[in-house]
Amino acid sequence: MPVQYYIFLSIALFCIGVMGVLMRRNAIIIFMCIELMLNAVNLLMVAFSKMWADAGRVDASSAQLFVFFIMVVAAAEVAIGLAIITMVYRNTHSVDINILNRLKN
Amino acid sequence: MINLVWLVPFLPLLGFLVNGLGRRSLSKSLVGIVGSGVLLASFVISLLIFFEVKAPGFSAQVVQLFDFIHVGSLHIPFAFQVDQLSALFLLIITGVGSLIHIYSTSYMHEESSESFARYFAYLNLFVFSMLILVLGANYVMMFIGWEGVGLCSYLLIGFWFKNNDYTNAAKKAFVMNRIGDLGFLIAIFFMITQFGSVTFPEVFAKAASLGMNNSVITAIALLLFVGATGKSAQLPLYTWLPDAMAGPTPVSALIHAATMVTAGIYMIARSNILYTLAPHIQTVVAVIGLATALFAASIALKQNDIKKVLAYSTVSQLGYMFLALGVGAYGAAVFHVMTHAFFKALLFLGSGSVIHAMGGEQDIRKMGGLKKYMPTTNWTFLVGCLAIAGIPGLSGFFSKDEILASAFGHNPVFYVLGLAGALMTAFYMFRLYYITFAGKFRGTHEQEHHLHESPAAITIPLVILAVLSIIGGYVGLPEVFGKNLLAEYLAPVFAPSVPFAVPHHLSHSLEWILMGISSALVIVFILLARQKFANYEDTGKESTGLGKALENKWYVDEIYDAIIVKPLYELSRFFRDTIEKAGIDRLVNGIGRGVQWGGQQVRLIQSGQVGFYIFAMVIGMIVLFVIGFLL
């Protein structure tokens, strides 16, 4: 399959992620949208890695190394992020981010 | 001995340090001994140097202490030049200075011991600066002394600084001097750029090689003369000197009569070659000198403050010295500096003695009849008056006669005007004498009871100066009487000018005639003053017309006030109100206020809505992408 398909798919996923972060107020959904953006990038990197490998570059697999990095970091981030959201819920009985503007003024 | 010349200025410096630093702990008598002692020591050394210089076959010597400025090709050593001119000035300064220091120990005795020490410290510092001025071997050294004496003059005029008028007088003196000093400073810069040197022999040699009427020399001579008009109180910068009488009387005698104000004459006499090469500037010097002599003498006719009369008379006599310089009679000018130092110091110290006895009163209308209370002061003051008036046989006669004879040789008009000034001098001096010492006492009863002759520390300097005023003239006898020793002695200093100068030689008969005319007229004017003022009564009548203008000093202070001081104040006010407050302040405050207003507007964006922040971030990123993509 030509690499353009992967690129379009990645763009679509990333845009969905961005729009989700912008539009939604539910913290969990925003979180999921961030994951979506990260994975859009991962997909893109894997696709490019494959493309370069097909073109005969020996060091093309290093891109996949970054994918693992991102997945590990994302996992750590999820652990902390979900904990924060849990704490927020305990305090406010809500996961609506618009309530979290209490630091204002 | 010449190699020890540095001791002459540094002894007074030592005195200044001791008295200045120890002013809280030293007793009055110790301060007096230190202050006068260092000066007497300097005087003894000066005397030894003088005899060495006077010996035949002596040529000018330069004693270098250290390198002062050495930048690129410019080389200014800290060096003293000992020659006939500086040796003579050393004698005048340390000699008259010693007498005045001794006089001061008694005159200032009522001061607290701290201000007594402060006074002597200033006085010693002044003598040090004045000696640096006359001993310096280049114009920069001279300038150092020049500024030093200006500073000390300021400090001593404002010695009683709690009186506002006195501090104003001090400030006036300082500012007026500053105007002149600027001219001197520019002249030095001119010399450095044109000649690459400020050392006397080099400057004079290079100037002489440029020849007559060279524009560079003309400019330098004019600028130096501007400096001289400031320091030596000539038109138009003379107004500070009468006000300088605010200082203690011995200070007026030393600084504002005998020494500092003659610095301008010393400078021009020292630079005689520059002036001989610039005859136009010489004419300017002569005209300004003559104008000052007449102008100040006319003011002195109507003054009622004993010190003011003497101050205007000083300005007038300085005018004569400049007249002499302007007609090329440098020797005569230096001669008059010397005799004037004697009789004017005598007159000032005499007036100090009178003021002392009168308990601080300076208005001659409230004196009178002091003859019988203060015999020594009376006869010494009379000698001073006779000397300054130019009675034959006294010192003032010889020096003034030499100046007038030279003026006649140059231009008979100068002679006539100069003679008119001399007659006015005779008249106002004897008006002063008769009003003060003759007639009946017009002060309060209490003052009359208090009247007494001053103590020995005051009368002894008076007697010594009176003797000098009598015999001081015989070193410069006119040609018809014999040898002019002083002219012979000073000849090497003025030798470079001789090839360029136009000689004027008066025949002996003419000289006799001139002398006879001036002497006879002076005696007539003295008798006139005697007839008018010997039995003076204070009628309290307001004078009118010319008399009123003279009493108010031709309104010069008022004119200066109106055309210089007031406009300056107005300009300052304009700068303060318009430029500073409305311009600069508003700009600075406006920037501050603008930032504050902007902050208040931008603050509204900080809404706390996370969604909006992220939206702004995304928009920002998109904008950055677009920009990156397009460029």
Automatic annotation (TrEMBL), chain A:
Enzyme class per UniProt: translocase
Reactions the enzyme catalyzes: a quinone + NADH + 5 H(+)(in) = a quinol + NAD(+) + 4 H(+)(out)
UniProt cross-references to HAMAP family, sorted A to Z: NDH1_NuoK
GO molecular function: NADH dehydrogenase (quinone) (non-electrogenic) activity; quinone binding
Record Pfam families: Oxidored_q2 (PF00420)
UniProt entry tagged with the keyword Transmembrane helix: yes
Taxonomy, superkingdom: Bacteria
Function: NDH-1 shuttles electrons from NADH, via FMN and iron-sulfur (Fe-S) centers, to quinones in the respiratory chain. The immediate electron acceptor for the enzyme in this species is believed to be ubiquinone. Couples the redox reaction to proton translocation (for every two electrons transferred, four hydrogen ions are translocated across the cytoplasmic membrane), and thus conserves the redox energy in a proton gradient.
Membrane topology listed for this record: Multi-pass membrane protein
Keywords carried by this UniProt record: Cell membrane, Membrane, NAD, Quinone, Translocase, Transmembrane, Transmembrane helix, Transport
GO biological process, one term: ATP synthesis coupled electron transport
PANTHER family according to UniProt: NADH DEHYDROGENASE SUBUNIT 4L-RELATED (PTHR11434:SF21), NADH-UBIQUINONE OXIDOREDUCTASE SUBUNIT ND4L (PTHR11434)
CC terms in the record's Gene Ontology section: NADH dehydrogenase complex; plasma membrane
Family assignment from sequence similarity: Belongs to the complex I subunit 4L family.
EC assignment: 7.1.1.-
Subunit and partners: NDH-1 is composed of 14 different subunits. Subunits NuoA, H, J, K, L, M, N constitute the membrane sector of the complex.
TM stretches of this protein: 6-22, 29-53, 65-89
Compartments where located: Cell membrane; Membrane
Protein name: NADH-quinone oxidoreductase subunit K
Automatic annotation (TrEMBL), chain B:
Keywords linked to the UniProt accession: Membrane, Transmembrane, Transmembrane helix
GO cellular component terms listed in the entry, alphabetical order: endomembrane system; membrane
First-listed, main subcellular location of the protein, grouped into a coarse class: membrane
Domain NADH-Ubiquinone oxidoreductase (complex I) chain 5 N-terminal: 68-120
GO molecular function, one term: NADH dehydrogenase activity
Name this polypeptide is given: NADH-quinone oxidoreductase subunit L
Transmembrane portions of the chain: 30-50, 86-104, 116-137, 143-161, 182-200, 212-230, 251-269, 281-301, 310-335, 341-358, 379-398, 413-434, 455-477, 512-529, 610-630
Localization (cell): Endomembrane system; Membrane
Pfam families for the chain: Proton_antipo_M (PF00361), Proton_antipo_N (PF00662)
Xref: Gene3D superfamilies: 1.20.5.2700
